[in-house]
Each structure stands twice: as C-alpha cells, then as structure tokens.
Amino acid sequence: MTPHHPRKRFGQHFLHDRNIIAQIVHAMSPKPDEIAIEIGPGQGVLTRELLPHVKELIAIEIDRDLAATLQSHCDFASNLTVINEDILHFNFSELLTTPMRIVGNLPYNISTPLIFKLLLHADNIIDCHFMLQKEVVDRMAAPPGNKQYGRLSVMVQYHCLVTKLFTVPPNAFRPPPKVDSAVVRLKPHTALPHVVTQFNHFQQIVTEAFNHRRKTLRNSLHSLISDELWKKIDIDNRLRPEQLSVADFVILSNSYSQSQGI
Fold first, then answer.
1. Digit-coded pLDDT (tens) for 113-144
2. Of 114, 128, 159, 254, whose CB has the highest number of CB atoms within 10 Å?
3. Which domains does the chain have, with CATH numbers?
4. CA 175 to CA 4: how far, in whole Å?
5. Alpha carbon distances (Å) from 174 to 3, 5, 42, 105, 183
6. What is the rounded CA–CA span in Å between residue 25 and residue 101?
C-alpha cells in the first residue's frame, strides 16, 4: 500500500507484525458464511487476511485517504465494503440487523466509549476481537477484588464473557506506542446470567459506586439506597465496590428499581 504518515489526531498505530496478524485471524477463526465488521482497518493488513475467509467484510475507517486507498487496492474483492466514517458517530442500528462478528485495532482514546456503544447492540454481535491498550484489557477481564476491577469490568462482564488472548509488544506497530497492547475476545452471553430490570439504574449504581471507590457502599450510594432499603438487601454495605460481583450489582440495581416502584 502507498506509504501513509500516521495521524496523531486519529491515534494511528499501524500493525505490521505478520505473526500477530496470523494470531488474530486464528483466534477469530472466521467462517465462509459469516459477515464481519472491521473497525479501523488502516492500511488493510488484517483486511486482506480476512477477506478470503468471510462472506462479507465491512471496513469502517475514519481517515478518508486510507479508506480510498483500501478500496482501490482491494477492488478485486467483491465481498468488501469500505465505509469512511467516524465510528463513534456511526449508526450501528442500521448495520447490525443480523448477527455479525467484529474485529479491530482500536485507538486507545476511543476504545472505552466505543465498547459501551457496541454493548447496546450485543444481541446482534457474535463476538468481538479487539486490539487494545493492555491496561484496558486487564480492566475488562479483572475479577472482583482485583485492583483493576471497576466500572468497565462490571459493565462489560454483564454483557459478555471476556477472554484476554495475548499481549502485543510496541514494536509490532508503526509507530510503536508507548505501552503494551493486548488482544481480547468479548463474547456476548446467549442468555444473560443476571438480568437487570432497569438498565439505566444499573448504569447509575455502578457508576456512582466506582466514582467513590474508596468509600463503603453505604457512603458511596447514600443518594440512591437508603438505610431502610439496605436492610432488605443481602449485601454488606460496609464493603467497597470492587468487592462486589456483577451479580451483586444486579441485586443492588433491581432492589433500587423495585423501591422506585418499577
């Protein structure tokens, strides 16, 4: 592909290590009857490896020069659609009308908001394979009691089984980032293990709890959960938020919703 100077404003770090690319494709194990979405294809190194293995590949790229170059260099592939758009403003409702697989090397500055956006469409996502900053992957996969466990852990694990696959060193990219990266698999639950009655209440409680993570639950959630309500909840309110499981947060959320008459 034509040399392209990485643009800082898009957080561009181009993956070039062929072994890492092969590991991603192997982990994903794409099938010929599947539709895949690639987020941030960049110079198309992963795109070209995926194209022979899927029914259709939809590549979404914010950089118009890269999008145009990718389209012209992959004209031979009738199963490729290139969309030049900002993924954070992209309307997934129109695209995710059937189960699809998602893959991408995500810029660090958009990874968390993008994942939260995608989780809203979890019903039509088979799985996601993402390259992310290793710290973000560690937070997503962290169990309760771990110092990395937080809002991101709870919200992602509510929707998905999270599997950290492998770490990727900075020299696998051009230019090399200043941190290690990692590849993670997010597989939405076929049936949610724990179901909230009001998702907005769940978000509110998880966010409020971890905004004051050094406080006890009684203190961090005092504006939402009264002492009277705590007496009806089988959770010790002297605990701190990182000590609660996803199931515990669902219990808190549903108890709060019920107290609101919902």
1. 999 999 999 999 999 999 999 999 999 999 99
2. 128
3. 8-188 (3.40.50.150), 199-259 (1.10.8.100)
4. 11
5. 11, 10, 11, 13, 17
6. 12
